[in-house]
Amino acid sequence: MTDILVQQAYSGRSAEYTSALGAIDQMHALDHHCIGRWAELIGGRVLDAGCGPGHWTDFLHMRGVDVSGIDLVAEFVDGARRRFPDVTFEVSSLRHIDAADGSLKGVLAWYSLIHVPPTELPVILSELSRVLAPQGHLLIGFFEGDSAEPFDHAITTAYYWSVEQMTSLLHNAGFEVFDVETRQDSGSRPHAAISAIAR
Length: 199
Description:
By secondary structure, this protein is α/β, with parallel strands linked by helices. The protein has helices at 2-11, 14-21, 29-39, 55-61, 74-83, 121-131, 163-172; strands at residues 45-49, 66-71, 88-91, 104-110, 132-143, 150-151, 158-159, 175-183, 191-198.
């Protein structure tokens, strides 16, 4: 049910979202650095899980990463295919990823977990763990705050997570956290990024 609500919310505003936040030059320079540095650690297939307009997928592709993107929203996937024809994009839920156990070397989940209700997040993290090979790399970006606290996101309800609680959830899902970045930009919600390795 949550997937359907998120899908419907973004479907109706996909063009608006892509115009506002669908290009790399609209992204923070520190995010470029964080994701680019993470990509250097990986040799093998990478999934951009919840790729949205596909700009981060293409960012990785342009750096020689063997990457594909998936998203719930067909309008995002259609737009990404038009804008980045050299990259593979598919419509898919993060709850049931079409990839064999241990088949991926990296998963990027950049702000794609923010709408997942707290009771459902462990299921998603376990699925990301399933598709990653041992020592595979996960990078997630999210809004930092009081754990599981909902807020009125511009599209649909989203949730804050503390670094400590997200680290605990990742550990329970089979990951070891090895790097954390946080920042507070003027006029923006607090940001956090966590890099982890699948056990």
